[in-house]
Amino acid sequence: MNIIGVIPSRYDSTRFPGKPLKKINGKEMIDIVYENSMRSNKLNNVIVAAKDKVIYDHCKKRDINVFLTSGKDRCGTDAVYEVSRKHDADFYVNIQGDEPMLKPKTIGDFVTSLVSEHKIYHLIDTFNSMTICSKDDLSNKNVPKVVVNKHNFCIFMSRFAIPYKKSSYSPIRYKEIGLHAYSESSLERFKRHEKRYIEKAESIEFLRYIEYDEIVKMIYLDIDYITHAVDVPSDIELVEKLIGSQV
Asked: What is the CATH number for 237?
């Protein structure tokens, strides 16, 4: 299968302007994510989908494979859709540009599982990833939590700690991590669907699929290290400490 990795990247982040070019241990975050993606050895190609000229120019200087989007992309899936208009592939893996702690093996494991799951559920063409949610993640509104059925199909996602614990039973909680995958057809459907109220309320773009009764297969990744996305400026120092403690 021809599988392309796409790293959506925009400079004008609401919570953290200029985030892709902020340095982590001396290296720009977009460089780290791109290099980790390339080292996974499971992707036929990796492309940074840059919304802004400043990121495009940076990537060109670093010999990073980059595509300048129209600037009309409102979310990462929109950026992947634009790449799919110019680059043919069986699947496009959306690798979040603010996940510098995702190791090459994790990205490779996701791609391997994607191919395996697609052979079993060959009509399903939309995938997301999850892992166990830590105690700190449960209270972090920047971390989407996931509820699945017995087949690991997504039921709902929220920034709140779901499922709610009312009884003495302690449910397993999962969190979304920065790896998604779609076929070209899946991306086209996403673009056709209008943004509805649950997606607007939670600000989680994958809820668009759920609101339109689309099936999203969640791939569980057994990650034996701490991951943390960079959402706000204070996350930079935290990620540097976490990376240092796990070397």
From this structure: 3.90.550.10
Domain total of the chain: 1
> Can you tell me the distance from the alpha carbon of 91 to that of 114, in angstroms, rounded to the nearest whole number?
9
Q: Shortest CA distance to 95 belongs to which of 49, 158, 164?
A: 49
CA distance 117 to 29: 31
Give the Cβ contact number of residue 136 at 10 Å. 10
Q: Residue 245: its pLDDT value, please?
A: 81
Q: Can you point out the beta strands (E) in the chain?
A: 3-9, 23-24, 27-28, 45-50, 66-68, 91-95, 126-132, 145-148, 154-158, 174-182, 217-220
Give the residue numbers spanning the domain of 222: 3-245
Look up residue 183 and give its two tokens: 């076929």
Question: DSSP class of residue 117?
Answer: H
Q: Of 13-27, 144-158, 182-196, which gets the smallest average pLDDT? A: 13-27
State pTM to two decimals. Answer: 0.95
From residue 153, give the alpha-carbon distance in Å to each of 37, 50, 215: 26, 31, 7
pLDDT for 15 beyond 90:
no
Convert 96-118 to b/e letters by CB count within 10 Å (16 or more is b): bbbbbbbbebbbbbbbebbeebb
What is residue 129's three-state secondary structure?
strand
Q: Concatenated DSSP letters for 36-69?
A: HHHTTS--SEEEEEESSHHHHHHHHHTT--EEE-
Q: DSSP 3-state assignment of 218?
A: strand
Strand partners, 24: 27
Q: pLDDT, tens digit, for every residue of 58-77? A: 999 999 999 999 988 889 99
Which DSSP state fits 19? G
